[in-house]
Amino acid sequence: MFDNIRSVGTAAMLLALTRNMQDEETVKKMLADQGFRFVVTEMSGNSALSEFQLKTTKAVIGACMNTGLVAKTPTNYHALLHATDEAKRGIMVNVASSVSVAVKIAVVRDSQWVAVALFGESALHPLTNHDRAGLGIMHLGTDA
Question: What gap in Å lies between CA 103 and CA 101, rounded to an integer?
């Protein structure tokens, strides 16, 4: 079923959807075998006062730069910021103020494109938890 993933977006979302380490390792191996590079991290916070917005951006940039997933250039920062912002918009659609948000973040790249996938839960109260997802894709430019 997943032997030939052609899109960084599909690859990133698939990796973000994993719920345990065994599944995550299986997907990582499959993506690596197909030539994708990636990093996974997690983030939680409150949607009020832009905490989620800022923490998510810092988590993506930090994970990508610390692992060498992308080069430390203005073009790559720009691509990551745009892909992350697009993914955050998917997560934050119709979210009440001050909800708790916890997401798994997967960033996947190939030679030209980078995708940021967010998958997790949000709730005002633990009894109202529900899943949310967001995906952003951006061209890396010439200095990838």
Answer: 7
DSSP one-letter string for 48-75: GGGHHHHHHHHHHHHHHHHHTSS-SSHH
Alpha helices in the chain (DSSP H): 8-16, 21-33, 51-67, 74-92
Rounded Cα distance, 11 and 57, in Å: 20
52-94: pLDDT as tens digits: 788 899 999 999 999 999 988 999 999 999 999 999 988 877 6
CB within 8 A of 110, min separation 6: which ones? 8, 35, 36, 37
Residues paired with residue 34 on neighbouring β-strands, in sequence order: none
The answer to whether residues 84 and 57 touch, using CB atoms and an 8 Å cutoff, is yes
Does the global pTM surpass 0.85? yes
Distances (CA, A) of 23 to 16, 70, 104: 10, 25, 13
- What number does CATH give the domain 8-138? 3.40.1510.10
